[in-house]
Write a structure and sequence with these properties.
Four copies of one chain form a homotetramer. Chain A has nine helices and no strands. Chain A is mostly helical. Chain A has two domains: 58 residues, Orthogonal Bundle (Arc Repressor Mutant, subunit A), CATH 1.10.10; 137 residues, Tetracycline Repressor, domain 2 (Orthogonal Bundle), CATH 1.10.357. Chains in contact: A-B, C-D. Chain A binds a DNA duplex through helix 1 and helix 3.
Chain lengths: 209, 209, 209, 209
Amino acid sequence: MAVKAKKQGVRRASVDDRRELILRAAVEVFSRKGYTGCRIQDVAKEAQVAYGLVYHYFKNKDELLESVFATGWKGFLKLVQAEIDREEHITARVRGIVGVAFEAYRRDPRAVKVLILEVGRSPAGGSVNRGGAFSQVILAAANMFKAAQQRGELPAQLEPVLCATMLFGAIEMGLTTFVMGLLDKRDEAAIARAQEQVVETYLRGVTAR
Amino acid sequence: MAVKAKKQGVRRASVDDRRELILRAAVEVFSRKGYTGCRIQDVAKEAQVAYGLVYHYFKNKDELLESVFATGWKGFLKLVQAEIDREEHITARVRGIVGVAFEAYRRDPRAVKVLILEVGRSPAGGSVNRGGAFSQVILAAANMFKAAQQRGELPAQLEPVLCATMLFGAIEMGLTTFVMGLLDKRDEAAIARAQEQVVETYLRGVTAR
Amino acid sequence: MAVKAKKQGVRRASVDDRRELILRAAVEVFSRKGYTGCRIQDVAKEAQVAYGLVYHYFKNKDELLESVFATGWKGFLKLVQAEIDREEHITARVRGIVGVAFEAYRRDPRAVKVLILEVGRSPAGGSVNRGGAFSQVILAAANMFKAAQQRGELPAQLEPVLCATMLFGAIEMGLTTFVMGLLDKRDEAAIARAQEQVVETYLRGVTAR
Amino acid sequence: MAVKAKKQGVRRASVDDRRELILRAAVEVFSRKGYTGCRIQDVAKEAQVAYGLVYHYFKNKDELLESVFATGWKGFLKLVQAEIDREEHITARVRGIVGVAFEAYRRDPRAVKVLILEVGRSPAGGSVNRGGAFSQVILAAANMFKAAQQRGELPAQLEPVLCATMLFGAIEMGLTTFVMGLLDKRDEAAIARAQEQVVETYLRGVTAR
DNA sequence: AATGAATGAGCATTCATTCAT
DNA sequence: CATGAATGAATGCTCATTCAT
């Protein structure tokens, strides 16, 4: 029985691996060629699997790309949520959130590039979910800001939703500076400085009176 | 000859009208369906001109979309540049730039939506030019910040390029809040408050020490 | 103006020709390969037009095949209707209808083969219309039989709808005998005898008491 | 050994059950989606067996469908043959054949629908066998009619093959009236009347002089 | 300049069939 | 026997672009 369980485990793992393999390949191709340029064939070739297997794991192209977002976003969301839930002063939480984002970029810049450049773009169908995923983070952060206001850690007159969108706007654009090549993405120190400046500027902006 | 000249004048005007007509139609369709979903046929139908006429005025689809950006961006850029060139304290200029962006949104939300959702996000081909257009504004603003630092209006330790990207990030996300429906886009007062908050937060962030 | 009208006429005619050309080609391929085996490419090749042109005139494969039915059926329907409307004894009308069907077979056996072998078969969508077209004839004939009953030309206890379906069933099977090769389709005399037998048997069946 | 035999017996029965199960599922799906729309996967799902198991019992899709016909047809054929072989007047035999067909419809309308809508109508591949199955009944009936003519029960000038095709045409169309919804398939009395009319009309048609 | 019919390469998607487990 | 993952050829359909009128 242990053996059988193990076998099933292996099989399961194998299945997950395959799916994961294709997903990774999709991220790769997607980040290189963008949404439109990404052909299923390229993904299959990149993953070194047969053409039709992609359709074994994903209903269609849209769902595949959807999953790319969902997966990448889910990981990010989880980490961000952990920072949001941290029982600390709002400044520490904001620092944490920015840190999570920059760390993600350092670890897998291509995945972040996809998330940054393609979120909100797509044929009608998918946009809902992606927009939804994005909204989710915004609203979670907005709640965090609202609570902070009630604890007196933040000026009451600020609109929490705007605080949230501006935070992620600052992060996004901070990273975009590297993604677009306006600053050198291989310069670790520059990335660190950018992170610092995003955090400090944002915090001063929302807290200083 | 006068008659002929007049005729030519009329014709030219007519030509420009046609071009303009198609361009406007492209913005319309583009904002509705996004880059990928925008078919030449849709544009022609929207402009109520014949299919092939689009190819008289634009070499191909890419050039058409390129022109959409160029035109929309050119107008925006001109106004932003005017604010950048204004001989005033950096805070006034920043206020001006944010004002220009929000005003543009109030006047033509669809065009702004296109600019926001599609700029810098595109299949390989056009990215250069569009990215270029975007970079242009960033770099112009970066220069403005650098000069402001030299005049002592801004802390010297800030990276000017990041100041610029963060400014536009804040603006973009401020507007995105409405584009994505997180805040009510028909609520004029909310838009005004958002503008105010974006400006104030940003300025406090970069100036407060 | 006359010239212009002529030109337009020519253009129209040309357009109709193209459509017609493709339609004929579709009948040809369809009768050879059946519904499933009929590839758009084959139709295009048969019509000697470009692949995409088929989609210029027909929305998709289904609509093309739909049109094949509609066209073929329309012609048949018109002739049958003429017989139905003839102001004569029911026996003469029935004779006329059978004559129309057999004549159509003599003239274009392939088209009749398509009509006979493919009616009622197809992906869900199309079947409705084809079934509808078929129902139309049945119901028209049923009305004819009902009127005949009221004129006392036919026993009152017969169900008119059944009279109609049985008539066309007799015709269909009479022709099927040749389509399936149970009787020699090149034997003109055999066809004539079959027509005779279908008519006589059917009429005796419904009239004799 | 007894045990083994028993086991084999059980296995055989089980095997037959499995085969039968798949066959039934095929009829089901086939009647719902038609020849083209019937995917192996659908059949497997309907039978609640694994995808590949279908290929243990049937060489390929064609053979599966072939078997559907063969099985359904075999049962029908057997009953029809029994009526054909009955040592009675031709009218009684015809009555019997019609009765068999209508009874089959009452018992399993879906299977009859498949037989009616798909027999003799198919892509090249399978047509031979299916057409063959159909021809078989026709020819058997034709022989019956020929013998009846020799016994003087039927006019000699009738073509026996045509008598046979017309009989099955009348039956087919009588049932088609319900299959196509021209008459209410839930109205038992209507079905009975239809059967009556088909028999009487046909018999009067072929016998009355 | 204006029209829209014609072209065909490109791509997503399906599905019968095989095969390792 | 049983399973369902894996394969890839086949094909419908789209849409940018050209061209005759």
